[in-house]
Amino acid sequence: MIKKIFTFIDLFAGIGGFHTAMHGVGGRCVYASEWDKNARISYEANYKDLEPKLFTKDKDGRYIYFNEDINDAIPSEIPDFDICCGGFPCQPFSVAGLKRGFDDTRGTLFFNIANIVKEKIETGTPPRVLFLENVRGLKNHDKGNTLKVILATLDELGYGYSYNVLNAKYFGVPQNRERLFIIAWYKKLVNVEQFRFPLGIAPDGKTIYDKEELKEGTMPTKVSDIFEPSETMDPKFTISDRMWIGHQNRKERNKQNGKGFGYSLFNADSPYTSTISARYWKDGSEILIDQSDKGLNPRTLTPVEAGRLQGYRILGKGWENPECADNQNYNASNPEFRIVVSKKEAYHQFGNSVAIPVIKRLAEEIVKQLL
Questions:
Q1: 77-124: pLDDT as tens digits
Q2: Catalytic residue at 29?
Q3: What is the pTM of this model?
Q4: What is the rounded CA–CA span in Å between residue 7 and residue 29?
Q5: Active-site residue, from 29, 84, 90, 324
Q6: Of the candidates 281, 269, 302, 271, which has an alpha carbon nearest to the alpha carbon of residue 348?
Q7: What is the signed CA dihedral for 162, 165, 171, 177, rounded to 10 degrees?
Q8: pLDDT tens, 113-160?
Q9: Nearest Cα to 283, choosing from 231, 230, 242?
Q10: Which of 21, 201, 203, 231 gives 359 a disulfide partner, CB atoms 3.0 to 4.6 angstroms apart?
């Protein structure tokens, strides 16, 4: 893979899933914004060595390029950049007129992205590419209005765009996680009709672009790819009898009431888990690991495993299957991610993160097709 040096900004940065992926294909981060104080701690701890300038402070001890509240960001003070990355929260727009566009986005977090881009265009340094991520539900949010306003705004700013829903399980991580991606390019600088989305990774590591090809199989995964060694497993990850009975009773009740919600149980050989969410720390019920072969109740994932499920290279106590330490996600070509916050915060942060292998493959294609 050819690395091309380019600059990017990391908005709604979380713990830096975009940063890890973009850095891997030659990107330099010149500005980041994240308001959650614990996410900021994780972000600085993990990217300070990669990108020391990002954490420069002024004489009053305030960060210059590591912004806290996006609403306070002054676009003219943001260094120029090639790509704007942002996994922005899904919020409804108050669509007053039929115009649908930039003015309808005021008061939302998406407006901040659009406004930074608009200012950069007005000062003659338009970003070439916008790389945006959101939940799959954005497509139908507010009867489809939310997406319409976003796309109309991109159009108004002079950007062409393509969007698609991608699933992490096709990119070599054992997690069923669907997210919507919007890739936009400044038409005066980039002359393409559309962006070809990578839909998955083939067993030989090549990129799959064709839906039909996905059916032929992708890079094989199993849940135990992320496991720490069982002999080092702390018994506190095994759930109590009381909690296990509660999970089973709730699932039974929900079944009778026609609700599909309840715990989900996986074993070492399951090809993937369900989607990990930011509330995983509460009871871990969306991903429980079966331990009936050991005569034990199920266990939750450890924070290390939760991070690996999103493609972070976390060394932890090693791997249950040592060969997994050398796979595309966890080998030494990937930066090591260190957990520097509490267990609860770590689960919360990983549940909110992007799946790095998806972002990395998209980043490679952006470099190839649009830069």
A1: 999 999 999 998 776 655 544 455 666 666 678 888 999 999 999 999
A2: no
A3: 0.93
A4: 6
A5: 90
A6: 281
A7: 150
A8: 999 999 999 999 999 999 999 988 888 888 888 888 899 999 999 999
A9: 242
A10: 21
